[in-house]
Amino acid sequence: MRVAVDARELAGRPTGVGRYLAELLDRWGGSPDARRHEWRFYAHRPVSIPPALASSSVVIPGAGGTRWEQASLARALGRERPDVLFAPGYTAPLAAACPVALTIHDVSFAAHPEWFSFREGLRRRTLTAWSARRARLVITDSQFSRGEIARHIGIASKRIRVIPLGIRRPASNRNIERTPVILYVGSIFRRRHVDTLIDVFVNHVAHRVPGSRLEIVGENRMHPPGDPARALASCPAEIARRVTIRSYVDETTLGDLYQGASVFAFLSSYEGFGLTPLEALAAGLPPVVLDTPVAREVYGAAASYVADLRSPAPLADALTELLTAPQARRAVLAQADAVLARYDWNRAADATLRALEEAAGV
């Protein structure tokens, strides 16, 4: 089977879709089943591919956006005529000269168009819907997203394959000295309520837990544009200094943050999956999450749930308890192994490869 892969998300600093694709490629590089196929990777800049898997890489100059995808990539596929195209990031060339296996991680742009600018929301809704209807099959990360794709895009459930993501476990979490740090990792969208997290920390938790700190790592993608740290402008300087906000850190620094913090906060009201709380859990870090159907599906009993953000008290209480009460931390972490066992990149890679073979008719 000749597999084409849209690999543009591997260029630059991979986050989100790029990390998803990189994990699959890493596992396929060590898989005899994957290596028996011929792979060809397309991107707008040079990208790193596991040597064992890289039959060839093709750089198609351009910006790597919609025009590149719909015109430049489509022409290259027309020349090469692969057996299947794997499009890991929501959209694919509508004129692709081959079957398409398309991954859609969530449909927030359709379920909540108010979270996007008119132009960006329209582009995402239109291209994702057209791409999904054109695809031989659609891959997604959770049963929740499968239902959302079927409802908002109109794709029959039988064409959607649910393949949960995997997690990377640290070598060891033993004998780690935790500090009273609350950690958030992920792009900053309004639906993730990072501004609320900061506000509750500076006005409630910081006073109740001396020496506690808040670490935020993620690019600000709020729409309408906003400053999640606006609460810091009116709080005492001593409190403001206990909040650190960074748009990006390298993997080593990120690992250190996971290993040294005490609580992970991820207050998203809409996700297709939500990977970072699982990564935190694997590092021995109990997550506090908003109580949503997808959170219950993905994290099960291995999380502390906050039902409502309209009052600061439930969130402040949950964070304070996990910062100060070892028995509360142990109760959450006791459920971790059973939950984490459901998420394995080797299984995800094997299932995704089978989906590609199905789409190609192999």
Verbal overview:
The chain is 41% helix and 15% strand. It contains 15 helices and 13 strands. The strands form 2 sheets. The chain has a 7-stranded parallel sheet with strand order 3-2-1-4-5-6-7, sandwiched between helices. A 6-stranded parallel sheet has the order 10-9-8-11-12-13, sandwiched between helices. The longest helix is centred in the middle third of the chain and has 17 residues, at 118-134. The chain is globular. The model has no long low-confidence stretch (mean pLDDT 95).
Give the spatial strand order of the biggest sheet.
3-2-1-4-5-6-7
Helix content: 40-55%
The whole-angstrom Rg is: 21 Å
Q: Indicate the overall shape.
A: globular
Q: Report the span from N to C terminus.
A: 7 Å
Largest sheet: 7 strands, parallel
Average pLDDT metric:
95
**What is the tally of helical segments?**
15
* Poorly predicted runs: none
List keywords for this structure.
362 residues; alpha/beta; seven-stranded parallel beta sheet; 41% helix; globular
Itemize the secondary structure elements and their pairings:
Layout (H helix, E strand, L loop, with lengths): L1 E5 L10 H13 L2 H4 L2 E6 L12 E4 L6 H15 L3 E4 L12 E4 L4 H4 L6 H17 L2 E4 L2 H11 L6 E3 L18 E5 L8 H15 L4 E5 L19 H4 L2 E4 L4 H10 L2 E4 L9 H7 L4 E4 L2 H7 L4 E3 L5 H13 L1 H8 L2 H5 L4 H16 L2
Parallel strand pairs: 1-2, 1-4, 2-3, 4-5, 5-6, 6-7, 8-9, 8-11, 9-10, 11-12, 12-13
Helix pairs in contact: 1-15, 7-12
